[in-house]
Amino acid sequence: MDKATRRQQLLHHARDVFAKRGYHAAKIEDIVTAAGVARGTFYLYFTDKRAIFEEIVDRTLHRVGMAIERVDITRPVADQVRGNIRRIVALLLEDRATTKILLASASGIDPAFDRKMTAFFDEVATLLEQSLRDGQELGIVAKGDTRMFAYLTMGSLKELLFELVVRGWDHPEERIAEEIFLFFRAGYLRVD
Amino acid sequence: MDKATRRQQLLHHARDVFAKRGYHAAKIEDIVTAAGVARGTFYLYFTDKRAIFEEIVDRTLHRVGMAIERVDITRPVADQVRGNIRRIVALLLEDRATTKILLASASGIDPAFDRKMTAFFDEVATLLEQSLRDGQELGIVAKGDTRMFAYLTMGSLKELLFELVVRGWDHPEERIAEEIFLFFRAGYLRVD
Amino acid sequence: MDKATRRQQLLHHARDVFAKRGYHAAKIEDIVTAAGVARGTFYLYFTDKRAIFEEIVDRTLHRVGMAIERVDITRPVADQVRGNIRRIVALLLEDRATTKILLASASGIDPAFDRKMTAFFDEVATLLEQSLRDGQELGIVAKGDTRMFAYLTMGSLKELLFELVVRGWDHPEERIAEEIFLFFRAGYLRVD
Amino acid sequence: MDKATRRQQLLHHARDVFAKRGYHAAKIEDIVTAAGVARGTFYLYFTDKRAIFEEIVDRTLHRVGMAIERVDITRPVADQVRGNIRRIVALLLEDRATTKILLASASGIDPAFDRKMTAFFDEVATLLEQSLRDGQELGIVAKGDTRMFAYLTMGSLKELLFELVVRGWDHPEERIAEEIFLFFRAGYLRVD
DNA sequence: AATGAATGAGTTTTCATTCAT
DNA sequence: AATGAATGAAAACTCATTCAT
Q1: Of B44, B106, D89, D111, whose CB count within 10 A is highest?
Q2: What top-level class would CATH report for the domain B48-186?
Q3: Tens-level pLDDT at each residue, chain A (192 residues)
Q4: How far is the CA of C42 from the C1' of E7 (A)?
């Protein structure tokens, strides 16, 4: 087994252990047992527990970052928004273990790591906010605080994915993105 | 100092410590130092670290539960919904330290505790879902999966409060509830 | 048992363990077993293994430093030199375990500690050198490199004490200082 | 590269690593990296870390042993003593890395090794003592404890070389032996 | 009730040594 | 012979909890 494969193997099992137990309850022992290697082997590939956790999280954060495309307001907007939602949802449902880690345990690790997560979501919020501002100028986004819209958007997505992935709520995957889109477009309350 | 006051004092300081450091990084030592009592005293009032954490969380969960009133569809709905949002937001912004704990560290404690948090949000989601179903029958809630609406609702609220409380985002408190209400009523996207 | 006594007890047993095994072979386990306390107790009194070792060494280094009196050249010199030698020898033979540590294991601990030892002996050498220079001006110290005389002096003392303490060489204690004095005064070779 | 050369290469680099870091801080990894061989290769040539260290030390101990010639009292003594000092000093200044190991880290390795060092210096002390006894009979060594003279001699030499090699004290090499000789012959104190 | 010293289980990490290739 | 990945024993250190005073 070559180095890269062994690394993958450790990442793979670590991901499962973190998803199952959470960061603090996950012991190096659990990871190496799952991977079927000796304790010392772990430290040949990762400097410490935090490093492997960070790598797992980073990889997916990066993919999520890549999945979000800035909305081009010179083209039809609806499908671009739908596309963004769809890509994020698909990506996060594809590797449920990592999504679980991301949404359920990637906080309270240590100050530096927490800052990193914060920074990521800040970045996404800022990206989103810019699009929303562009949209307001074109009249395709309602008036209101765009930062707040951004948080409301992220929060609703996060919670939904959390329920789907962490709590195993069963909902037809293909309809998720569309329903979220509709929620952003028209809310659900029909009162005056 | 009588028993009840001493308990309060410990709860108070524990809350601050948990809010500042998170559950795992918070040490009993930190709490008793902050409270100005001896280490052993802590265990006269609480069976263990988890117990005091749970009590802090429970108290607020309970208050949040109490703040949510089932919408009475025989009366005008809009203000009842507004009221629910307002009460939750007010309550959670009133004790920011506890809200911080609730939204940033109350997970990954241990399986039993995690289940309890899950159960609480399940309960809220179910309550919300019932209201949404009632609303659908009356035509004041859009068609669609009510469970999903419930999650989207909770998620957006949680994220917003998280940003306000944990990250210190500054937003005029009095307008928060109204803007959330509008978001649920009409979303923000104005595309076809 | 009060804190100070417990500290002393740990210092006492640690000294014996370090003297017997040397720094690296001495385990915290050995120390706490010898002291009859739990492992954690050790860390209530000392931050780590190095800290207790340093404290043991420092205490004696300090006493040795105090024992050396600058020779006052306006008064008869011989007895002052004798006094210095006598005090150092007496002090180091009084607590043989610590002297053993000082002469046999207080090196190779870590760079910072090694520098500290170095600094101490440098200081002693410098003190000695100054006295030797004063002596040269008065004609009671032979011409020659005073730094070298200082090292030769320290080295001969160190080795002798090492043999007495570490290797258990038996030599009448009361005559040691006088014989060393004679060695510095006249060497032993009687060749031309 | 043949076996003998590879061995030499490992010994050479091990010596440098031990000199730089000391026995305990020197890692096998450091040695093989310096030597440019694989970790496993090390164990083809040496049974363990101690073995290579011992070989480095032994080699020089042996050369020092060889350099000391028993003083022949039927011939002029002064130059024979001078010669002994000169040979030892030259030999130890020639390979400063090994001398550093010998004087700064060759203790606290393990009981067996420590005994070996002890035994070597015992042997030298005994050799020296015998010469000193012979000398006393001829009247060319002062009265006094010859064992003590032996230790004082060894100690002064060791410390001086330690300062020259380990601490980088700069002193004209050609004069060292002569000054030491003078020290043994007449000390430096000129008091009554 | 209050204290705070003592406890020791639990975990991470290091690194000399082994061994399959 | 050479390699270097794998091993696992060993040790330090932490901290929630207990308990004698």
Answers
A1: B106
A2: mainly alpha
A3: 799 999 999 999 999 999 999 999 999 999 999 999 999 999 999 999 999 999 999 999 999 999 999 888 889 999 999 999 999 999 999 999 999 999 998 898 999 999 999 999 999 999 999 999 999 999 999 999 999 999 999 999 999 999 999 999 999 988 999 999 999 999 999 987
A4: 11
CATH superfamily of domain region A50-186: Tetracycline Repressor, domain 2 (1.10.357.10)
DSSP per-residue codes, B52-81: HHHHHHHHHHHHHHHH-----TTS-HHHHH
Q: Which amino acid type is present at position A176?
A: I
Could you tell me which chain A residue has the CA closest to the CA of B179? A144
d(CA C156, CA C150): 10
Domain boundaries, chain C: 1-46, 55-186
Contact C105 D108 (CB under 8 A): yes
Alpha-carbon distance C67 to D49, whole Å?
41
Same fold, D1-46 and D49-186: no
From the CA of B36, how many Å to the C1' of E3? Answer: 12
Alpha-carbon gap: A40 to the closest alpha carbon of chain B (Å): 26
Q: Among 1.10.10.60, 3.40.50.10050, 3.40.630.30, 3.30.2350.10, name the CATH number for the domain at D1-46.
A: 1.10.10.60
Residue the block writes with tokens 């005056």: A192
> Which residues are paired to A189 by β-bridges?
B141
CB contact under 8 A, D167 and C141: no
Rounded Cα distance between D33 and D23, Å, is 16
Please state which CATH number belongs to domain C55-186. Answer: 1.10.357.10
Task: Specify the residue for token string 């879902």.
Answer: B129
Nucleotides on chain F that have an atom closer than 7 A to a protein CB are 1-20
User: In one letter, which amino acid is C91?
Assistant: L
Tens-digit pLDDT profile for residues A133-152 = 999 999 999 999 999 999 99
- Name the closest residue on chain B to residue A24, using Cα atoms: B108
Q: Is B141 helix (H, G, I), strand (E, B) or coil?
A: strand
Is the pLDDT at C52 greater than 90? The verdict is yes
Q: What is the dihedral of CA C134, C137, C140, C143, to 10 degrees?
A: 100
Distance CA D129, CA D147 (A): 6
The one-letter code for the residue type at D19 is A
CA angle A60/A66/A72 to nearest 5° reads 150
Mutation pick from C89, C156, C175 vs chain D, by most beta carbons of D within 10 Å, is C156
Long-range contact list for C35-38, CB < 8 A, 24+ apart?
C35/C9, C35/C10, C37/C6, C37/C9, C37/C10
Provide φ and ψ at B141, rounded to 5°.
-125, 135
Backbone φ, ψ for residue A99 (5° rounding): -60, -40
